[in-house]
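Many introductory courses stop at the sequence. We go one step further.
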Amino acid sequence: MTEPQTQTQSPAPPARHTVLDDAQGILFGVAMCAFGLVILTSAGFVTGQTAGLAVLIAYATGLSFGWVFFAINLPFYALALRRMGMRFTLRTFAAVAGLSALSAVLPQYVGFDRLHPAAAAVLFGLVTGAGLLALFRHGASLGGVGIVALYLQDKTGFRAGWSQLIFDVFVFGAALFVLDPVAVGWSLLGAAILNLVIAVNHRRDRYIAT
């Protein structure tokens, strides 16, 4: 006698995020990134990508980081709309606007009497990495260079990671004219930890709910 065959059921499709899921995820991501920026600027450090450029301009001019960051991102929304679609663009606009506003308000409520450079670099990388992961997993970003890098990769085949690395080299090179070299060195540590958090945890084959 042959044994009865058991039918294997295909796995259920992943549950999609609800509107409330996405709202709290983006709010969490913005809050964590804003807190990371408080740590970064309290230590006098800089970071990479568009946020790093905005921090440098704020250091050099005395302008508010929030206004500079918001303005720098404006030209990128048309490209985001073309490359990523309306939903991603609107969520990214909301995240950028939220970070711009919260980064101006949060320092009035959070400060540091003692902040060792090593602790600042590590905490910035971990906190901001967690915030960016939340934004990515809920269909948003902080705009800027990442959008251009993805666009160039689609159009030319030039890897997005290399485009972002080239931009970061420019940002940290410019930082040497504004900050002490030791501060730039600690900043590089923070950026490395941030990128490591993203590289290890942001994988679509492990996280598939959208």
